[in-house]
Amino acid sequence: MVQGDPWKNALKQLDDACSILKIDKGVRDYLAEPNKVLRVKLPVKMDNGKIRVFIGFRSQHNNDRGPYKGGIRFFDPEGGLEYMEKEVKALSAWMTWKCAVVDVPLGGGKGGIYVNPKKEKLSENELERLTRRFAFAISEIIGPKKDIPAPDVYTTGKEMAQIMDVYSKLSGMENEPGVITGKPIALGGSLARNVATGLGCAYCIREAAKTIGLKLKGAKIVIQGYGNAGTFAAEYLEKMGAKIIAVSDSKGAIINPKGLDSKKVLEYKNKTGSVVGYPGSKKISTEELLTTKCDVLVPAALENQINANIAKKLQCKIIAEAANGPTMPEADPIIYGKKIMVLPDILANSGGVCISYLEWVQNNMGYYWTFDEVAKKMEDHITRGFKDTLALSRKYKIDMRRAAMVLAVNRVVEAFKAKGLWP
Ligand code: NAD
């Protein structure tokens, strides 16, 4: 989603949905602009005793359906600080729509610090001081009933635990787990968080397959990106009877038309650092991977992977966007013209936010569900999200990406209008 100007992309998608729904300019403008974007200065004492100032953001896009929800990333996009601000704003808007598509009663937020902890080799202590300073700086605007952050690029359960600790102590409580999700299990994290995005994506593919009359048993699957989302999508699709024929990571792509064993490929990758070289497979290019003849293509790596040229050569029946923004806007009409069903990112990778929502619910009630209970509840949200999107795609004769936006925007407008404006 970060091709060119992510904020412009977000507005374009909103405008498309507003014109289909005939939403007037005032409401459109209300939906476009985030409610609040906080930019904070973060002075940190480094290990060498010197002070270094970092900059952080939190964008709160819309909370008409519930508290803001969205990740915190530690990242340094090429475009610099100004680009990061736009990106965070756009990502917070996409969180609003993602929550609404799968009918999770939360709004959209996103934030982060302009820093690349891996590149800069920050020590653990420096990183902890920076994280806690950020938590302090945004503490006034977050909270279990206000804004509930989560992990994102280069942040993990460890940083979430530190943010929770700062917030809890500042608000005079020892433990306020509902302020953040993606926590370690010991602090009230949810079971199934690790598998959530891949499993949710597999549920979504299962529903799409039923719709187009594709049998998942023996269906051929290609996965770009063998990380968290990609490996669990592979594992669960395999459990549903499908055959993984090609996968890739940052080092390259491999194929075996007879099928790859998803778990063994992961073991191989963990041992050697890449899927490339896996016994019995052949190395292929990225373009060959994406355009391999298959039933389902799962882009689960980076944004902007499918351009117009690739789109023309695609030979799949379903594209399930586990990654955020893997398809460039120019490719969409070509894919639609080829009658390939696209499961857009805000639907196909919403398993993560569904489980985050369920983590927050468990924290708030102080009672914890089993893995199967959590997975079943997530499945219900995703299945309904798919069916509601499909119904609108048929009603308005539009592709699934625009249908998902129409569904989401309509749900937010309904909540906004029901409340009215005050003051
Ligand atoms: P990850 O870091 O665990 O995995 C990413 C994988 O992509 C790695 O295997 C990496 O080697 C591979 N990769 C990187 N560059 C590549 C390239 N050029 N070609 C092929 N593979 C390449 O990340 P993840 O959490 O699995 O996230 C993947 C995508 O899914 C991202 O777009 C992310 O925003 C999206 N997503 C993830 C979650 C989640 O809960 N993990 C939720 C929503 C969306």
From TrEMBL:
Ligase keyword on record: no
GO BP term (any one): L-glutamate catabolic process
Binding site residues for NAD(+): 197, 228
One GO MF term: glutamate dehydrogenase (NAD+) activity
Residue ranges annotated for the Glutamate/phenylalanine/leucine/valine/L-tryptophan dehydrogenase C-terminal domain, each copy included: 190-420
Keyword Ligase: no
Annotated substrate binding sites: 69, 98, 356
Keywords: NAD, Nucleotide-binding, Oxidoreductase
SUPFAM superfamilies xrefs: Aminoacid dehydrogenase-like, N-terminal domain, NAD(P)-binding Rossmann-fold domains
Pfam families: ELFV_dehydrog, ELFV_dehydrog_N
Residues at the active site: 110
Site positions per UniProt: Important for catalysis: 152
Family: Belongs to the Glu/Leu/Phe/Val dehydrogenases family.
Subunit record text: Homohexamer.
The protein's name in its UniProt record: Glutamate dehydrogenase
Biological classification of the source: Archaea, Nitrososphaerota, Candidatus Nitrosotenuis
Gene of this entry: gdhA
